[in-house]
Amino acid sequence: MFYWVMKRIFLGPVLGLLFRPWVKGLDNVPAEGPAIIASNHLSFSDSIFMPLMVSRPVVFLAKAEYFTGTGLKGRLTALFFRLTNQLPMDRSGGAASAVSLDAGMEVLRGGGLLGIYPEGTRSPDGRLYRGKVGVARLALQAGVPVVPVAMIGTDKVQPIGKRLPNIRRIGMIFGEPLDFSRYQGQAEDRLVQRKVTDEIMFELMRLSGQKYVDEYAAVVKLRLAGKQKEPFTEAAGTTAPEPEGDGEDEASAAG
């Protein structure tokens, strides 16, 4: 109920008037049945604008820290994320991340739309970075199509580190659903996972017009922060929103 009230009555109409989002290819989102919506990630506001344009609810995997905060702010943040169809994602890798991806699988098994950012974190410079294979594992295991969507201009509306957005027009382009049924039975094959992920990233590059960098965005952020590279699994970090000014986002393998 909270999700629909915010989308239809409060947040949706206000943002529509202020930012006048334009949309192409919205009919590529299935009217029913499970699907993954895989997006590039330029800004925290991606997770606000894109679900507003899709008539069906979109459930995102959000980093688990949003659900474990302390104090009044932490509790309110956790409540907001739960009420707006967010699921906690453990990005530490290994078994913990696998369990988190299982939550996304349940959404798909229930016939829902699952939103994922394959890069795992926002782009530090507007370029498109290497995707992590969690999106491929989910698509192959669930046997669902992947709809690529390119967010346009949201990095200008709310750059990393800026809390208050700039009022300007944004856009999004939904590509045709990608069918990976030819890989049926190969969901655990790492080479297949990488091939599927790269195909998704190619479509995002084509739709968005971004320059592609064959490196993980999280690693680039660590380097920009002057920190040593830290190992992490490809499957982790396929998640969604990060609030602006989040120190962890600026210096770690955030999703």
What does this structure look like?
With 255 residues, the protein is α/β, with parallel strands linked by helices. The protein has one domain (27-246): 3-Layer(aba) Sandwich (Glycerol-3-phosphate (1)-acyltransferase), CATH 3.40.1130. Helices cover 39% and strands 15% of the residues. The strands form two sheets. The chain has a seven-stranded mixed sheet, sandwiched between helices. The protein has a two-stranded parallel sheet with strand order 6-9. Strand 3 (58-63), helix 3 (71-83) and strand 4 form a beta-alpha-beta unit. Helix 4 (94-109) packs across helix 5 (134-142). The longest helix is centred in the last third of the chain and has 19 residues, at 190-208. 42% of the residues are buried.
List keywords for this structure.
255 residues, two-stranded parallel sheet, alpha/beta, disordered C terminus, 7-stranded mixed β-sheet, 9 strands, Glycerol-3-phosphate (1)-acyltransferase, 9 helices
Task: Describe the structure in brief.
The chain has one domain: Glycerol-3-phosphate (1)-acyltransferase (3-Layer(aba) Sandwich). Helix content is 39%, strand content 15%. The chain contains 9 helices and 9 strands.
Number of domains: 1
Q: Spans with pLDDT under 50 lasting ≥5 residues?
A: 239-255
CATH superfamily: Glycerol-3-phosphate (1)-acyltransferase
Q: Structural class per helix/strand content?
A: alpha/beta
Overall helicity: 25-40%
List the helices and strands in order: HEEHEHEHEEHEHEHEHH
Q: Total number of β-strand segments?
A: 9
What would you report as the Rg, rounded to the nearest angstrom? Answer: 17 Å
Q: Assign the CATH class.
A: Alpha Beta
Envelope shape:
globular
Strand order of the largest sheet: 1-8-7-2-5-3-4
C-alpha termini separation = 27 Å
Q: In the CATH scheme, what's the topology name?
A: Glycerol-3-phosphate (1)-acyltransferase
Strand content: 5-15%
Number of helices: 9
CATH arch. level architecture: 3-Layer(aba) Sandwich
In terms of quaternary structure, what is this? Answer: single chain
